[in-house]
Specification:
There is one protein chain. Helices cover about 45% and strands about 15% of the residues. Strands 1-2-3-4-5-6-7-8 form an 8-stranded parallel barrel, surrounded by 9 helices. It is globular. The chain has one domain: TIM Barrel (Alpha-Beta Barrel). About 55% of the residues are buried. Strand 3, helix 4 and strand 4 form a beta-alpha-beta unit. The chain is of the alpha/beta class. It binds 3-hydroxy-3-methylglutaryl-coenzyme A and magnesium ion. 3-hydroxy-3-methylglutaryl-coenzyme A (HMG) binds next to helix 1, helix 4, helix 5 and strand 5.
């Protein structure tokens, strides 16, 4: 039997990936309260917002306001998405601890999501990475459609490795392998991860799995078997990408923590307080949490 990591770091992307796809505006104060509740639950990494075009993603238009009002705690890292220099210039005054540049393994998704080719995206990211480093800020890279694309279909590990290498060549510090539409299955995800691990150390590779086909937890387990110990997740299972039709939310943070607790893997997260955070934001959105664990624990409390 393989040895699994003893500790896992979870990045809650709920305030960003979770909310970006919501049609109705979510008030800045609710976003800030969600960040507070995630911290109360013990999250040490939170993806707060994105500095993208408000025409493309209206829900993130209050990015500067959100960064200004969130309660910042020592030891917690707050990250934001920045697709270009305009985004970085707007983000820097808000003092993110980390920025995220996001590329795709497929040309079609790159065009739909950020309106440029993969090569052009790398050209745009290069000065963003350099300027972030100059400001002492770490750069995480997200690689969308690493196991499947809503436009292209199948995506090969070779295509993944090609873009991983391009991101590495411009100095991106960390590589997040993303299954944007949740079609990945364990061996496929492992093959993509392997390619990232050829160029980045274990500590700088993470998984980002949308749960559209219910495979996300299995895929996380497959990554744990490889020693990967950093994952994105979204409280209440919120989320989706506006440019990946039909893609549902990220794997729910509650579900991941429940599995890791069962495996005896430490996360530093208090599941009850996490369920509170999920119930809170789901209440704001007027629906039940997507998280199965969240719903089960809430039902248990009510009973
Ligand atoms: P573009 O239209 O090609 O950009 O968009 P442009 O440089 O030609 O500028 C056009 C207009 O946008 C101009 O304004 C710019 O000022 C403005 P106008 O003159 O028309 O008034 N603009 C900006 N405004 C604010 N912030 C900026 C910015 N840049 C230009 N940073 C762009 C290119 C990338 C901006 C656009 O395509 C965009 O915003 N796309 C949104 C992408 C996005 O947020 N997708 C969701 C996040 S990624 C994701 O969810 C995947 C992930 O979770 C991993 C996974 O699951 O796969 C990370
Ligand atoms: Mg995503």
């Amino acid at each position: 039997m393989s040895t699994l990591p003893t500790h896992v770091t979870l990045v809650d992307v709920g305030p960003r990936d979770g909310l970006q796809n919501e049609k109705e505006p979510v008030a800045t104060e609710h976003k800030a309260r969600l960040v507070t509740m995630l911290q109360d639950a013990g999250l040490k990494e939170i993806e707060v917002t994105s500095f993208v075009s408000p025409k493309w993603v209206p829900q993130m238009a209050d990015n500067t306001a959100v960064m200004a009002v969130i309660e910042r705690r020592p030891g917690v890292r707050y990250s934001v998405l920045t697709p270009n220099m305009k985004g970085l210039e707007a983000a820097l005054p808000t003092h993110p601890d980390e920025i995220v540049v996001f590329a795709a393994a497929s040309e079609a998704f790159s065009q739909k999501n950020i309106n440029c080719s993969i090569a052009e995206s790398i050209e745009r990211f290069a000065p963003v990475v350099a300027a972030a480093h100059e400001a002492g800020i770490k750069v995480r890279g997200a690689l969308s459609c690493a196991v499947g694309c809503p436009y292209q279909g199948e995506v090969s590990a070779d295509e993944v490795e090609r873009v991983v290498q391009l991101m590495k060549s411009i100095g991106v510090d960390h590589m997040g392998i993303a299954d944007t539409i949740g079609v990945g299955t364990p061996r496929k995800v492992q093959a993509a991860m392997e390619r990232a691990l050829k160029h980045y150390p274990l500590v700088e590779v993470s998984g980002h799995f949308h749960d559209t086909y219910g495979q996300a937890l299995t895929n996380i387990y497959a990554c744990l078997e490889m020693g990967v110990h950093t994952f994105d997740a979204s409280v209440a299972g919120l989320g989706g990408c506006p440019y990946a039709k039909g893609a549902t939310g990220n794997v729910a943070t509650e579900d991941v923590v429940f599995m890791l607790n069962g495996l005896g893997i430490a996360t530093g997260i208090d599941i009850d307080r996490l369920v509170d955070a999920g119930a809170y934001i789901s209440g704001v959105l007027g629906r039940a949490p997507v998280s199965r664990v969240g719903r089960a624990l809430l039902a248990k409390r009510a009973g």
